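Researcher: Going back to the complex we discussed earlier. I've cleaned up the inputs and rechecked each line, so this should be the final set. Can you rerun the prediction on the complete assembly and write out the structure?
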Amino acid sequence: MPTFFETRQLVAPGDLLAEGTYVAGENTYKENNKIYASRLGLVQYEDKKVNVVALRAFYIPKLGDTIIGTIVEVGFSGWTLDINSPYLAILRASEVLSRPFRPQENELSKVLDVGDLVIAKIMAYDRAHDPRLTVGEPGLGKITRGQVVKMTPTKIPRVIGRKGSMVSMIKQETDCHIILGQNGVILITGKSLKDEQLAMMALRKIECESHTSGLTDRVSQMIKKEKAKQKEELNSESKT
Amino acid sequence: MSQKPEKLIDKKGLRLDGRKPEELRSIKIEVGILPNADGSAYIQQGKNKILAGVYGPRELHPKHLALPDRTVLRCRYHMAPFSVQERKSPAPSRRDIELSKVIREALEPSIFLEYYPRTGIDIFVEILQADGGTRCASITAAALALADAGIPMRDLVVACAAGKADDTIVLDLMDTEDKKGGADVPVALMPNLNAITLLQMDGILTFEEFEKAVNLALKGCRKIYTMQKEALKAKYESVKEVEE
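Model: Rerun complete. Updated structure for the full complex:
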C-alpha cells in the first residue's frame, strides 16, 4: 500500500496519490483501488485518509454556513444574492420582514437594494434547488459599515486557525470585529479606518502565505510592528 | 509559404525547420495570466500562440440549456483575424465550430461534470498565431485553464499530433507539413489514466503507419505533459518558497 507523495507536497489533478486500502478524502477520487488528486493543492495523509487542500476552489453551499452575499436582483417576493458560488441564493421577503408581507404595500427595494451586502445563513440547499437564506438570527442582516475582503473559500479555515486562534488574535490585536463568511467573504468592522486597514493587511498576509507553518506568530508580529510604526508617525506629526 | 518546397525532409533526414522526425517544437506554457477569468493559460508551441480562458461553474445563460444532473461544458475556439497570413474573417467559420466541438469532447471526460448540476463551464480558446497543430495546443492549454480555475478533474488532458511528411512518420507537424504532407493524426491523452480522449486522422496511412503515428503522438503527449504539469505548479511554487 504505497503512497507516492509526502504530506504538504504540491500535486496536480490526476496525480496518483496512493494505492491500496486508503480512503479518498477531499479533492481526491478513487478508481481501481488507486487514489488520484482531482484539484491542484497540497496533499495530506492522515492514517488511511488522503486529502488534498485545494489552492483554488469555489464555494459550495452547506447547511448552516454563515455567508456574506451581495444582492443582485430584487424580485416580487424576495431577493437574489450572489454568494460567490456557482449558485445564486434566494432570500425570501418573509424572512426579512417580521410583519405579514403584502407585495402591493411593501416595496422590497426600500428594505434591501441591489448592491447591498447581507450576512445570512444557509437554511436549505440540495443538488436540485438553489440555496435559501435566512437572516432570522442575531448578528445576521444588512451590513452598514466596515471593510470587505475576499479570498478563495478554501483559505477560510486557515484564517480561523486552530480552535480560532488566528482570528481571535487578529481581533484582539487590531480591536476590530471580524465576521468570516464561509464563502470566502470577510467583514471587518473597527473603531477607525486605520484599525480596519491593519486587519485587512493581516488577512492579505494569511492569504498569500496560507500553507506555511507558524503563521499566527508571524502575523501577530507584523501587526505589532505596524502598530508601533503608526504610533511613531502619530508622535512625529504631533511634534511638527 | 505558398510555393511547395521540393522536399519536406532533406538528405540528412531533417525537417524544414531543422527538427528530427521525432522532435517536438519548443514549448512555453504559462498559467493564470488573465486576472479577469476564473482560470487561464497561455501556450507557445513553435509559432503557435494560444490563450485559453475558463469561467465557471456558474449560472448558465440561457437558462433553458441547463441540465438537472450535470454541468454543461461549452467551448469556443476562435482564430484572431491576424493569426494567419491571409486575414481570416473573425466570424466563426465551419472549421472553428468543428474544432470547438472537438476540443470540448476531448476535455469532457476529464471533468467531474456531475458535481455541479444546473451550471455551466465556459472555455474560450483564442488563437493569436497559428502554425499547424492548434487544436492540440488548444487542448493542452484549456486543460490547464480548467485546473487553474479550481474545477475538479480526473486528470489533465494533453494533446499532440503525429503525421506523415514525404514518407516519414513525424511528430508535431507544423503548418507546411500538415498541408503538403501525407497525413495528420491528432491525439489527446489523459496521461495518468492512460485514456485517449481524441483521435482523428486526415490523409491516408497504412495500418502499420497509423499505429506508428499514434504511438509517436502518445510519446509526444507524455513529453508535453511533464511541461504542462511543471507550468501549473510553477504558479504556486513562489508561495512554497516562503515556507522553506
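Model: Worth noting: The first strand of chain B starts at residue 27 and ends at 31.
Researcher: Good, that matches what I expected from the previous run.
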